[in-house]
Design brief:
Keywords: ATP-binding, DNA damage, DNA repair, DNA-binding, Helicase, Hydrolase, Nucleotide-binding. The protein has about 280 residues and is α/β, with parallel strands linked by helices. It has a domain of about 160 residues: Lambda Exonuclease, Chain A, CATH 3.90.320. It is built from nine helices and six strands, in the order E-H-H-H-H-H-E-E-E-H-H-E-E-H-H. Strands 1, 2, 3, 4, 5 and 6 form a six-stranded mixed sheet that branches. Strand 3 and strand 4 form a beta hairpin. The N and C termini lie far apart (about 60 Å).
């Protein structure tokens, strides 16, 4: 039996779509850049703080302010990687305070039944490659799962990025559809929706579930500022995941590059012969 790269995660799929060669450097060549980032540290602090808070809420139906803040304080952001003014720590604390007061997105989870926190999953998608039956294994964790007032499941992913997703990203992103399929495998029902909770921005974006995008739904989403976004349909998502898996296992294809301004921030730009020469303008 041939060896295939069939153990994936959403982050792997997303990185491959961004640039196949960058994915190859990391997951095939296993080149570890050992780059640390204050933003990764900030994201870790926020996720740990929220994880602790939601476990408290699930187990006791209360929130412990002192313990929540201690979780943030223990993951130092002040000087570890350069947050000398404490800006990121302040943002993390503000998000904890919004949860304590059930403000913004957190209004949605007040008095709701919490089903899962950092819920682990292994989604299996069968396919064929080179005449062999292969299982694509997509592993990951879902930040939060709860039931809404209609007794429908809702999945949540906490985002610590500095901007929201645009319409196309929300329509084409595979993260929420992967969560939908994983939830169906575990609970026997598809969620009502998936929510991106942008903790730094005090806002959220919701994508509704549908098995297949209809012409009517497409027409509504094609408007300049659509009120409703449906996540990519399940059948279409599986098809894209299978094609991505096949491209990952195509030695020629995975060496292709997608030069863009993102190359400037790439950990592998020094060893990539096709990296873009774009640089940000210097501030005067």
């Amino acid at each position: 039996m041939s060896e295939f790269h069939n153990n994936l995660s959403y982050s792997q799929i997303d990185l491959f779509h961004q640039c196949p060669r960058k994915w190859t450097f990391k997951y095939i060549d296993k080149i570890d850049t050992e780059q640390k980032s204050i933003y990764l540290d900030y994201g870790s602090a926020v996720h740990k703080g929220l994880e602790f808070a939601f476990w408290e809420l699930k187990d006791t139906n209360t929130l412990n302010k002192n313990e929540m803040m201690k979780t943030i304080a223990d993951l130092s952001l002040d000087y570890a990687y350069g947050d000398k003014d404490g800006e990121l720590k302040t943002l993390a604390i503000k998000d904890m305070e919004r949860l304590l007061n059930y403000e913004g997105f957190y209004q949605k989870i007040k008095n709701k039944e919490i089903i899962g926190i950092e819920e682990e999953f292994n989604l299996v998608i069968p396919t064929m490659l080179c005449g062999e039956n292969i299982d694509i294994n997509i592993k990951g964790f879902i930040d939060l799962i709860y039931r809404d007032d209609d007794d429908k499941l809702v999945v949540v992913d906490h985002k610590t990025s500095k901007k929201k997703f645009d319409k196309n990203k929300r329509r084409n992103n595979l993260q929420i559809p992967i969560y939908f399929m994983a939830i169906f495998d575990k609970f026997g029902e598809y969620p009502k929706s998936g929510i991106y909770n942008f903790t730094k921005l005090n806002t959220f974006q919701e994508s509704l579930f549908t098995e297949k995008i209809t012409d009517e739904q497409n027409e509504l989403m094609n408007k300049r500022n659509p009120k409703t976004i449906w996540a990519k349909g399940i059948k279409e998502s599986k098809k894209e995941i299978i094609q991505t898996f096949k491209d990952m296992n195509n030695k020629k294809f995975r060496l292709t590059t997608n030069p863009s301004p993102l190359c400037y921030f790439c950990d592998y730009k020094a060893i990539c012969t096709n990296a873009s020469n774009w640089k940000p303008k210097e501030k005067k």
